[in-house]
Amino acid sequence: MFSRWIQLPLAAKLRRPYVHILFGARQTGKSTLLRTLLPEAAMAIDLAEPGVRGRYLVDPGVFAAECRALPKGRGPAWVFVDEAQNVPALFDAVQHLYDADRRRWRFVLCGSSARRLRSSGTNLLPGRCLLHHLYPLVASERPAPQSSALTPIVPLPWRKPPAELFPAADLEARLVFGDLPGIVTAVERDRPALLRSYAMAHLEEEIRREALVKDWAAFLRFLQLAATESGQLVNYAAISRDSGVSQPTVKSYYQLLEDMFVGFSVPAWTRSPRKGVLSTPRFFLFDLGVRHAAANLQVSRATVQANPGPIFEQWVGIELWKRLHYSGQGSLHYLRTKDGAEVDFIVERAGAITAIEVKWTERPNSTDARHLRTFLAEQSGHGHRGILVCRVPRPMQIDEQITAIPWWAL
Questions:
Q1: Distance between CA atoms of residues 130 and 132, nearest Å
Q2: 180 and 294 housed in the same domain
Q3: Is 99 found in the same domain as 156?
Q4: Does residue 25 belong to any structural domain of this protein?
Q5: 212 CB contacts (<8 Å, ≥6 apart)?
Q6: Domain boundary among 108, 133, 158
Q7: How buried is residue 369: exposed, middle or buried, by Cβ count under 10 Å (0-12/13-18/19+)?
Q8: Residue 400, Cβ neighbours under 10 Å: how many?
């Protein structure tokens, strides 16, 4: 079992007397993680299995009867339901059982989509549950070539030294294959096929099951376009024209990807005094390897080498997004104006602002930081700084407020 950063915090939270719901995309390791944290005697139900799913869909009352049959003991009886969104009626059963005796059972529900739950008006157990999320690997879960004494932009300190980290990887491998646990532990020659399988089989199958998509061919065209444009400002009109569906439908498709935890939006920074600031969000797929496969690109180092800058920028954005969500503090934005001024990412955390520019360079200079310098001059307050993330061998001070750092010091 490789160490996950969330393992110890989640283990501590699971001891609290609530219903626990763990959300995350397929293949992020939810089931593996929970099976290591829950007692061996826990009753486990996998609703991804068609026969099991059909049994509870036909008669959701079976679930409550099975829970009541669990022996009473000194501690709670653990009940683990995987892919719980497949039978929304179980949430009502869980609430009924929990309200009847909140100390007899400890329910842990796991899911890879929130869409069906929301669209069906499923009871998400307000006041009774703790929500948790699992993401693809963060940088600290995979060894980097060097360590840094710098404080990370969004620190995720381990509560104790990890027992075993995932296999080490250079920057190029991360940009090519992404950070899904099952991909990074596979031999490199198998990774492209596994990622294509994820995009073709898992992702499309999950979307087909979750969404009542009337024109499946149009949706697949949308998915390829959305993956190709990942990291860019969303152009609903262009995606609508190229995919052959209406703009409202395109917007619903983007929301679907977010509901399935395979995509996220980065909003624009709204507190700039400049004129002509763009307000359209940027959309990212949650993992670069899946992005390449869904865009029908060759999953290879050649793809990255052909135009590494935008892919590197996406990796930084995805990494910041995962850390901010794990930490539970701070927000991620970007800034772009009609005349071309831009700041790739802006992290606001604990009252401080960190402006971030991403450059595929080993020799950063003052010109690379010009947009950071302008942005910081516009901000009032203390503690603000600029970071230039690049491939410099070691940190460099560009000016008083701006530091260039290697990617592994992010």
A1: 7
A2: yes
A3: no
A4: yes
A5: none
A6: 133
A7: buried
A8: 10
β-pairing, 77-82 vs 43-46, is: parallel
Closest CA to 319 of 198, 154, 181: 154
Per the structure block, which two tokens stand in for 45?
Answer: 């139900």
**Rg of the chain taking only CA atoms, in angstroms:** 22
**Cα–Cα distance, 269 to 333 (Å, whole number):** 5
Residues 154 and 118 in one domain: no
**Residue with tokens 């060759």, as numbered in its chain:** 298
Same domain, 111 and 168: no
Q: Does some domain include residue 1?
A: no
CA dihedral 121, 122, 127, 132 (to 10 degrees): -120
Q: 144 and 127 in one domain?
A: no
Contacts of 154 (CB under 8 A, 6+ apart): 320, 323, 324, 327, 330, 347, 349
Q: Is the pLDDT of residue 219 over 90?
A: no
Question: How many angstroms separate the Cα of 205 from the Cα of each of 45, 214, 382, 393?
Answer: 21, 15, 49, 43
- Cα four-point dihedral sign 253, 259, 260, 261: positive
Q: Considering only CA atoms, which of 205, 231, 206, 230 is closest in space to residue 296?
A: 230
The answer to whether residues 355 and 343 touch, using CB atoms and an 8 Å cutoff, is: yes
Residue 179, in any domain of the structure: yes
Q: What is the pLDDT of residue 148?
A: 73
- Phi and psi at 60, nearest 5°, equal -60, -20
How many domains are contained in the chain?
A: 2
Out of 117-126, 139-148, 187-196, 251-260, pick the least confident: 117-126
Question: pLDDT (tens digit, 9 = 90+) per residue, 60-69?
Answer: 999 999 999 9
CA dist 390 and 361 (Å) reads 6
Structural domain of 35:
7-133
Distance between CA atoms of residues 363 and 385, nearest Å: 20
Q: Crossing angle, helix 50-58 and helix 61-68, to 10 degrees?
A: 100
Q: Is 2 a member of any domain?
A: no
Question: How crowded is residue 293: how many other Cβ atoms within 10 Å of its Cβ?
Answer: 27
User: Which of residues 98, 133, 168 is at a domain's end?
Assistant: 133
